[in-house]
Amino acid sequence: MQQVTLNNCDKPMPAIGMGTVLSSRPGADPSETMKSALLEAIKAGYRHFDTAFIYQSEKPLGEAIVEALHLGLIKSRDELFITTKLWCTFAQRDQIVGACKLSLRELQLEYVDMYLIHHPLRVNETIQKLPVPKEIIHALDIKGVWEGMEECKNLGLTKGIGVSNFSCKKIEELLSVAKIPPAVNQVALRWIYEQGVIVVVKSFNKERMKENLQIFDWSLSQQDLEKISELPQHKGFTMASLFGPHDFVLQLDAEI
Question: Site Lowers pKa of active site Tyr: which residues (predicted)?
Fold first, then answer.
């Protein structure tokens, strides 16, 4: 699989990753469903997995990695690129290292390859119901939180650090205070790949898993690229409603 070199990570990132937001068929155990799907993904050739504390998929991913090693599907954990994310509850300077270690325990790993700030905001308690009450959402202390992310990297808990769902303005603010610049900002497959963007896909269907990897032995013509680029683009944040009818999008500078 094609790989991309990142600016603060010693390890290249595979150009296609597998998303792991927890879901399952009615009546099925979601953790077992996820674990089985991840094992199938490893068999299909996926080596990049994207998880997060809030996805509740760190534990089944860790179990899948242990089983993949036992079955000989991979020879070493080093064959995998694992990304996880700092949830908003822990987005405070003194909680970040502990949050990263909590994720590592769930994953049964000594380190992750990429640790991201999940959203550019902080909530002061665990989200128990949706929409989230406005009074528990706060602006992010970008300087303090990024210092915590840098500490995670310096301690060897993660190979690289980055952000997710950050606007251009938020990234500019981060760059003005960062000692280690962010490696990534997460944002039709082949067109995305040809723009130099790493893709995270999700399917529990074996055939679709394979199809999503079959983009490296062909290319789009210049005419095709131009036609796709001309399609109207609509920017938005589809999860904004989860945070209630208030200024969450404005916290992101309304630029996503």
Answer: 85
Could you report the per-residue pLDDT of 41-96, keeping only the tens digit for each? 999 999 999 999 998 999 999 999 999 999 999 999 999 999 999 999 999 999 99
> Mapped to the 3 state alphabet, what secondary structure does the chain carry?
CCEECCCCCCCCEECEEEECCCCCCCCCCHHHHHHHHHHHHHHHCCCEEECCHHHCCHHHHHHHHHHHHHHCCCCCHHHCEEEEEECHHHCCCCCHHHHHHHHHHHHCCCCECEEEECCCEEECCCCCCCCCCHHHEEECCHHHHHHHHHHHHHCCCECCEEEECCCHHHHHHHHCCCCCCCCCEECCHHHHHHCCCCEEECCCCHHHHHHHHCCCCCCCCHHHHHHHHCCCCCCCCCCHHHHCCCCHHHHCCCCC
- Which top CATH class is 3-251? alpha beta
Query: What local confidence, expressed as pLDDT, does residue 165 receive?
Result: 85
| Range of lowest pLDDT (156-165, 197-206, 242-251) | 242-251
> In the annotation, is 111 catalytic?
no
Q: Does the annotation list 48 as a binding residue?
A: no
Q: Please identify which of the residues 55, 111, 115, 193 carries the catalytic annotation.
A: 55
